[in-house]
TrEMBL record:
This is Putative antitoxin VapB45-like DNA-binding HTH domain-containing protein. InterPro entries: DUF433, VapB45-like_HTH. It comes from the Bacteria. Pfam families: DUF433 (PF04255), HTH_66 (PF21321). It comes from Streptomyces aidingensis. Residues 13-95 form the Putative antitoxin VapB45-like DNA-binding HTH domain.
Length: 243
């Protein structure tokens, strides 16, 4: 298996699980189950186990940053699958098979997944390693286009926002979801991985901090030289507690 050399993307925890969930526009509980796995017990049926799906460098229940940039990128892909309304519990086995066939570390954040992942998903859905439900759910993520299997548009849209390093082929920059007006990016070499407005390079946390302190949208936009509508969009997310 190909391994990554020492790199801030892989081995430095930059985000708490809650912040990572907010950046990906999803519930923290969902992100937490992806990072740490889960074990659900039931009274009248067998327990359900789920292994971690993304890179996690912390200790359980720790409030400290535990997610490296590559984990955020892996979460971005899984978030795309979530938007496709496919139960993660039923797609997990197919994802594990695809990761094995890709043969690279951090497969969910690799350009190879973008390039051949849909075709591999079709191939594993045709095999005998999955049950009928798992095969059916896997096929819901892909469509046949010009004789080749590709990810559905809802998945493809998210994957287009993952920008890969030309050298090792792993995610290097993310165009974060959840914003219709502002363009917000995250890359480990800028602001130590913290999201920023591409219009000015201003860190998201700096603008959000001013809004939480009571400054108006107009005052904040003027002070940071940002468009008012972009700051207004962030203000709405601050009010909802997801910024």
């Amino acid at each position: 298996m190909v391994t990554a050399t020492s790199d801030i993307r892989f081995d430095v925890p930059l985000y708490t699980q809650t912040h990572a969930a907010h950046y990906l526009d999803m519930p923290p509980s969902t992100f937490r189950s992806w990072a740490q796995g889960y074990h659900n017990r039931f009274r009248n049926r067998p327990p359900v186990h789920g292994a971690p799906l993304i890179t996690y460098l912390g200790e359980p229940h720790s409030p400290q940053p535990s997610i490296p940039f590559i984990g955020l990128a892996e979460g971005m892909f899984l978030s795309a699958l979530r938007r496709a309304d496919v139960p993660m519990q039923q797609i997990r086995p197919a994802l594990e098979l695809v990761r094995e066939r890709l043969g690279v570390q951090y497969a969910l954040a690799s350009k190879r997944l973008y390039a051949v992942g849909a075709q591999l998903l079709f191939e594993v859905s045709e095999g005998q390693d999955l049950d009928r439900t798992e095969r059916r759910e896997a096929r819901k993520l892909i469509v046949l286009k010009n004789g080749q299997y590709v990810f559905r548009e809802v998945v493809e849209k998210y994957m287009r926002n993952i920008h890969y390093d030309d050298g090792d082929g792993y995610a290097a920059r993310l165009h974060l979801p959840g914003y219709e007006v502002a363009e917000v990016m995250a890359e480990p070499q800028v602001n130590f991985g913290q999201p920023y407005f591409t219009a000015t390079g201003t860190p998201l946390y700096a603008v959000a901090g001013r809004l939480r302190a009571g400054d108006t949208v107009e005052e904040t936009a003027e002070d940071f030289d940002l468009p008012v509508d972009q700051v207004a969009e962030l203000s709405e997310r601050v009010e909802r507690g997801v910024a």
